[in-house]
Automatic annotation (TrEMBL):
Protein name (database record): GrpB family protein
Lineage: superkingdom: Bacteria
Pfam family name, one: GrpB
Length: 199
């Protein structure tokens, strides 16, 4: 989200988005709906398309984001996390994914994002070993067990959805503080869960 101090607008974020978004920024009306029991099946159908397109090049493929958390209100958009060996080696995964109906939308140094023509799916691609993989999964798994943070996150999203956004990335940026707050609790929970119990 653009920051403004003393009447001066910081356009660094806009410049960055112009550089990494394929096709430019798009005005976004955000719709947040109640959880839909059909979302896991939608993920599985999409995941099957990805696996058929890439075969053994898929190192990990997970349902992430709000639609992966039962009971959590969300944009009706399936977020997927795909881990490959090398995100810079686009020849290994971009043409097969495009042939399977996914369009490359974001090209960042360590991240690619595809979407479907219907704009109801985001497929995030990272290389193995990136911190983003752990963060996405920690956040998802924590929200699956914490009703308090599910309610908090849903309320923030519904509030932000009342605004008009220059681009969906601006909406995502506006959630950053609450996501980082929840992620802190998720990491604490994950660390505690990983500790061996006393015999």
């Amino acid at each position: 989200m653009r920051q403004e101090e003393d009447g001066v607008v910081d356009d660094d974020r806009d410049t960055y988005l112009d550089a990494v978004l394929i096709g430019g920024r798009e005005p976004a009306s955000i719709v947040v709906v109640d959880y839909d029991d059909a979302w896991p099946a939608r993920f599985e159908a999409l995941a099957d398309r990805v696996r058929r397109a890439l075969g053994p090049r898929v190192r990990c493929l997970e349902h992430i984001g709000s639609t992966s958390v039962p009971g959590l209100a969300a944009k009706p958009l399936i977020d997927m996390l795909l881990i490959v060996d090398d995100v810079q080696d686009e020849a290994a995964f971009v043409p097969p994914l495009e042939a399977a109906g996914f369009e490359l939308r974001v090209r960042e140094p360590d991240h690619r994002m595809f979407r479907t023509p219907q704009r109801d799916t985001h497929l995030h691609v990272y290389a193995t070993g990136r911190a983003e993989e752990r963060d996405y999964l920690d956040l998802r798994d924590w929200l699956r067990v914490s009703s308090d943070d599910r309610i908090l996150y849903a309320n923030v999203k519904r509030h932000l959805a009342q605004n008009q956004w220059n681009d969906m990335n601006d909406y995502a940026d506006a959630k950053t503080d609450v996501v980082l707050d929840i992620l802190t609790r998720a990491r604490t929970w994950r660390a505690a869960s990983a500790r061996p119990t006393d015999a």
